[in-house]
Amino acid sequence: MNKQQKAVLISDSICFLFCLFFLFSLPKQLFKSPTSYVIEASNGELLSAAIASDGQWRFPIADTIPDKFVKCITAFEDQRFFLHFGVDPVAMSRAMSQNIKAGSVVSGGSTLTMQVIRLSRRQNRSIWQKLTEMWLAMRLELRYSKQGIISLYASNAPFGSNVVGLDAASWRYFGRKAENLSWGEMATLAVLPNSPSLVHPGKNSTRLIKKRNDLLDKLAKLNIIDKATAELSKSEPIPGKPLPLPQNAPHLLNRFKEEKNTLKVKYTSLTTTIDYDLQLKINELLKRYNNRYKANDINNISALVLDVKNGTVKSYVGNCYQPENKEFESHVDMIKAPRSPGSTLKPLLYVSMLSDGMLLPHTLVPDVPTQIGGYSPQNYDLGYDGAISADKALSRSLNIPAVKMLQQYKYERFYDKLKKLGFTTLNQAADHYGLSLILGGSEVTMWDLAKSYLGMARTLNHFNDYQGKYNPHDYDAPIYSKSVQSSVKKDETELNSIVDHGAIWATFNAMEEVMRPGDEGLWEQFSSSQRVAWKTGTSFGFRDAWAIGLTPNYVVCVWVGNADGEGRPGLIGIEVAAPVLFDIFRQLPSSKWFETPKTKLKKILICKQSGFKAGEYCTDKITELVPVAGEKTIVCPYHKLVHLNASSTFRVTDKCESTNQMQHKSWFVLPPAMEYYYKIRNSDYKVLPPFKPGCNDIGGNMVMDMIYPKNNAVIYIPVELDGTRGKVILNAAHRNSETKIYWHIDAEFVGSTKSFHQLAVSPLPGKHTLTLVDENGERLVQVFTVLDKDKKKSAN
To answer: What is the pLDDT of residues 50-77, one digit of tens each?
Structure first.
């Protein structure tokens, strides 16, 4: 290799190394400062923001910069910005000339590109640093477009106090987004990065006004604005002290902070699916109710509105935000907080039993005093119907029928169903909750509760879209990020689902029958009123009041209570949560009711009196549309064929009456305990005639039943105020109340009753056998256990 070739190789290597150095001299990420968390409504309006971890209001980098700011900042700082390559030789020479004439530094000649480099490096300026800025500025011009460089500058320039970036400054000083600022307001912000200390309440206002006005004159001179606009802009006031940023969805902002990585969002800003106007209306509505409820020391209220069609969040109010009152704990997001659901899970049991063929919509279920392994549920009104149709039990939110239904369905199966519906807070085994699961014995979140109802509504809405099939993604969690797409795809349909279309349709119809609060109770009289399927709930101890409702378009869930779990008298779902629910629905557009999924319903003959499938002895049969699985249900067990004498006054048998003289009639017969209460509420109920004297059919019919205590019950007899041992009231039902019953405890006669079969006794602690014998020889035997005082204490 000759000398010339070596020289060329060395020069090429130097050039190559120089190019590598130039290419990699700029850091991959210029700005590493933490940014504020910011959420916007679906229309771009700011909902809430939180200060960055370093104490600065610094919004994430903006995708677009308002044209007004671009024109203001280039006119003020760098008129040749769109012409130079990062360094402006003309500006540099002009600055040097001005500095020499003045004998000091009066102009720097830095371009906006160089200022971006300076902002990212935060180093003391020197000649060497200036040269480095020029070098890196040229490199920056190769990586970013001119709009990208302006965006970097606008997002990281200081605007006084602890405000960094145009977006944060616009909100802090003018209470609006930057794109809505006037020329005067934008000119004010454009001069601040050059002298950020000019923004100070009560100070520097004259200097700030002069700088702004000079810029406005310059804009007019450059024909960017006309003179009239410039003069009008000069009359606008300058900002005083910084304004607080909006806090219209602070709890959703905190949720975004926690779930940012899950959402796969690059920046700390998020455009949500929230309807801005609706969010503000519901915030104001909840504030009014909160002020009213605080008089009863009920301090917290939250609401969630979901869009059924899109599976998105339309409004998210985790709590009525009142940071000035720290004792109210309004920072707690009650949409995420595990709370007792009260009765809001009852429709989920109803729909599950319909779907699994264990119930028909109007099937009679028992409503009598109940004891199950020491567990004694009570209805809210402390009364009993004896028997009530399942849909009416749901609409009246009766506890005992719900427990009886769960006992039939099995709480283990219901627990698994709730898991499939997406309830995430059932952290204990099914046995831990037992039958109390249906009365609020577990904890759920408003998010999970609303999600389950949303899934059912979406499933029913998609009946025709999926040709009667099901999409498991209908039960996915609601979406609150506008950039996240729903995962529902038509090619992912399945033949079966958690609950079927027909069961959902029947359940929503039953939920629609719930009596609405106040004036809403007359809703059917107004053609403008919309149909709403809804349910309330009240937790034990009056700690939580719930209301959840839905239409084909929206799911609304409301919770009222105290974040610290304190119960209050009057904290009842129907009284405090339901009025809020319907006020929210009044803010939403009305919609038609759900379409009937006809192919998932079947017409079958129903016994009108019992609600079961009609049997051969049912006298009043009607045809009803019921879920297809209803065919698996049993036939009516309460209509029986009875044999009467010729005058129909007595029951008879072939032992005492000629079959030729008998009448054979179908009769609606309830078990004695159910009949005891049912006939009080239903005057048309006909009690079976007694047997003809001398014609008893001993053992042929169940004529007695214990109301209290039930078989294998555990009871406690308290001590009276005077120190004497109290008594327990034994209560039985006999199909013929006029029949005398003889009571025995452990084979010892303790008394007899007639008409009203109640007896006060005081048996000793321990296990006892109770035997009842009526005057016709019918017997009823069962056992019960009396706790002693010490065991009662240890049990507690």
So the answer is: 999 999 999 998 878 999 999 999 999 8
What is the full DSSP assignment across 203-272? Answer: BSHHHHHHHHHHHHHHHHHTTSS-HHHHHHHHTSPPP-SPPPPPBSSHHHHHHHHHHHHHHT-SSSEEEB
| pLDDT, mean of residues 711-740 | 81
Q: Which of 36, 40, 48, 77 is catalytic?
A: 77
pLDDT tens by residue, 732-788: 888 877 788 989 999 888 888 987 888 888 898 999 999 998 887 788 898 988 887
Which residues lie below 8 Å from residue 729, measured CB to CB, with a gap of 6+?
708, 758, 759, 760
Distance CA 458, CA 450 (A): 12
161 is catalytic: no
| Distance between CA atoms of residues 418 and 370, nearest Å | 25
Look at 708 and 18; give whichever has higher pLDDT.
708
Reference 443, options 535, 336, 285; nearest CA is 336
Using DSSP's 3-state secondary structure scheme, residue 717 falls into: coil
- For residue 758, give the nearest of 699, 682, 676 by alpha carbon: 676
**Listed residue (396, 400, 394) closest to 349, CA to CA:** 394
Q: Is 185 a catalytic residue?
A: no
Please report which helix (H) or strand (E) contains residue 49, including its range.
Answer: strand 46-50
Task: Name every residue whose Cβ is closer than 8 Å to that of residue 335 and which is 6 or more positions away in sequence.
Answer: 251, 302, 304, 316, 318, 445, 446, 447, 559
pLDDT at res. 658: 77
Q: pLDDT over 90 for what percent of the chain? A: 56
- Residue 315 pLDDT more than 90? yes
Task: Quickly count: other Cβ atoms within 10 Å of residue 152's Cβ.
Answer: 24
In this structure, the strands spanning 748-753 and 741-745 are antiparallel
- Give pLDDT, residue 651: 84
Token duo for residue 652: 């008879």
**Which of these ranges, 354-358, 505-509, 590-594, has the smallest mean pLDDT?**
590-594
426 in Cβ contact with 419 (< 8 Å)? yes
User: Checking DSSP bridges between strand 728-734 and strand 758-761, what pairing results, if any?
Assistant: antiparallel
Active-site entry in 170, 315, 343, 442: 343
Q: Alpha-carbon dihedral of residues 762, 766, 769, 774, nearest 10 degrees?
A: 10
Instruction: Please state whether beta strands 57-58 and 163-164 pair in parallel, antiparallel, or not at all (unpaired).
Output: parallel
Residue 457 has pLDDT above 60, yes or no: yes
Identify which of 209, 205, 160, 163 has the alpha carbon closest to the alpha carbon of residue 187: 209
Report the largest interatomic distance among the alpha carbons of the chain, rounded to a whole angstrom.
140
Q: Which residues contact 264 (CB under 8 A, 6 or more apart)?
A: none
- On whether the CB atoms of residues 786 and 768 are closer than 8 A, the answer is yes
**What proportions of the chain, in percent to the nearest 5, are helix, strand and coil?**
40, 20, 45
Give the N- to C-terminal CA distance of the chain in Å, as an integer: 100
